[in-house]
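User: Show me a protein chain along with its predicted structure.
Assistant: Here is one chain, sequence first, then structure tokens.
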Amino acid sequence: MHLLYRPELIIFDLDGTLADTIADIASAVNRTLAHFGYPQHSTESYKLMVGEGFRILIQKALPNEAANDERLVQSALDWALREYAENSLVETSLFPGVPELLRTLARRGYKLAILSNKPDQMTQAMIKALCGTIDFVAVWGNSENRPRKPNPDSALRIAAMAGALPERCLFVGDSATDMLTAKSSGMTAVGALYGYRSREELEGAGAEHIIGAPLELLDLVGASSAP
């Protein structure tokens, strides 16, 4: 299936959509839990915890009574962010097909951007390391100056920067948070099923299209047969 229009902008989520980051996130948070004397979790279980920012991730990883202690949450968050900042590219890599996807879209003139709930500085550093040759309209992570997804404000600001109409934009992500961001901003929601969440979650949150692999996006936007 092809879209009936050429997207004026494609916004991507980062974790679980462009890059497989879960092992490094799990390791950093588990080291934090161990430091504070709490049980650790399997890497697989973190796939259901990520997506709403690091603070909420820490609250989900901590036992219930600890998650309600704001001072403890802040201490654990600070520790986890240090751990992750120092070890964010140990096992992390782009998903197979993503480098070709981004190169093809860029070569064919599509405007691209990234909007993540990962801390802003980490988002920018990771994209520079993994996608250094790609020109993005914006690479935005979580910042005090911007609300987190699924609030539509940041997506709409990026669209305005690109001179794109929201209804002519795609938002590609692997979680309900991303689909809700797309829907609330008036963009087309594309669910990345190869990421960390289920088809049921993506469709339940409003995904209009589902891709099972990164390169399927080229077919969706009609770029696979472009000259």
